[in-house]
Write a structure and sequence with these properties.
This protein is mainly α. It has a domain of 76 residues. Helices cover 64% and strands 0% of the residues. It is globular. The protein starts with a helix and ends in a 19-residue tail after the last helix.
Length: 121
């Protein structure tokens, strides 16, 4: 049993993130993203940035990234709940900000010339 659990954990940690499957969308967040081309594009860009960052990380860092991403997904949904009229726009903005974090982009200004890597704790 322990071997099965460890194998399952290794597969989850090793597997890259996949873009959202809108045909299988469940819940308000998924449906709102799938209803907005801008939100879908933001989600796809974030997934690409997540996978690129993940590819540069060690296994323990990947596990921390996965935990961080799961927590962020929950927070994103909660933070946009109050704005029902602009729900998809809020999700798009939050997703764009997360992509910028994965890309280690500065919030303003030119940034630095060398590549940075965010620290996930």
């Amino acid at each position: 049993m322990r071997t099965i659990c460890l194998t399952a954990a290794a597969i989850v940690i090793a597997a890259p993130a996949a873009a959202m499957d809108c045909k299988a969308a469940r819940g308000d967040v998924d449906k709102a993203i799938c209803a907005s081309p801008q939100a879908v594009a933001a989600d796809e860009a974030m997934v690409a940035a997540y996978n690129a960052l993940r590819g540069r990380m060690s296994p323990p860092e990947r596990e921390a990234l996965l935990v961080s991403q799961r927590a962020w997904i929950k927070r994103r949904g909660y933070s946009c709940e109050a704005d029902k009229a602009g729900y998809a726009q809020c999700l798009t903005k939050e997703t764009d900000q997360r992509r910028a974090f994965f890309d280690a982009m500065p919030e303003g200004g030119p940034g630095v010339a060398s590549a940075l890597q965010p620290v996930i704790v």
